[in-house]
Amino acid sequence: MSLVYIFTFSKVETEQVARLMGVAAAVKTGARVGPICLGANDFVLFASDMGPKTARSLANSVLDNTSSAHGATAANPRPDAALIVGLCGGLTANLQQNTIVTYRECQSIDGNGTAYQCSPSHTERISRVVNWTGSSCESVVGITSHRIATDKSLRLELARSGAQTVDMESYEILAVAHKTGIPVAILRVVSDHLEMRLPDLNRAINEAGSLD
User: Fold this and answer.
1) What does the pLDDT read at residue 110?
2) pTM to 2 decimals?
């Protein structure tokens, strides 16, 4: 039996994952749920707030502390894998709203060009499961930003990096997991496509990088 840590970064993401895990009660931001046995694996859900700073802090506390350098504990055991589940923005015309994607790798606008790879084997298994349900699943390169891409011009600017999707957390989780040797898979759904214009929610992002 394997132990898998799942990370979500908004209320809507957490609600959907908790429902699939069979959790009836509402899960508050900052909560840790599990382990819950599903099939051949144990899952622990970490319901976090959005933003790269929050993601980095969470990854350091639950992934870095489980590495061999720090030593796993009964309360915080080393996971066999980590899974990020959530929403993302589309940066290319072929990624329409509600497209399901898995990440091959992720970079960051603050990462000095360094990209981290997702686990090919875990990603392939997730893709097969999604395809088995009758849905299609696109393989993409993602980029993490500390700001929301609210319009086409901002999305095209991000796409110059070679990325096809944008989110605010994946790179930070991958960076810590890469250091500790924990394989990561990323499964996201495109919530806003290239041509969509969003309200300027960046004005509501606080100093911690989260949406206030």
Assistant:
1) 81
2) 0.86
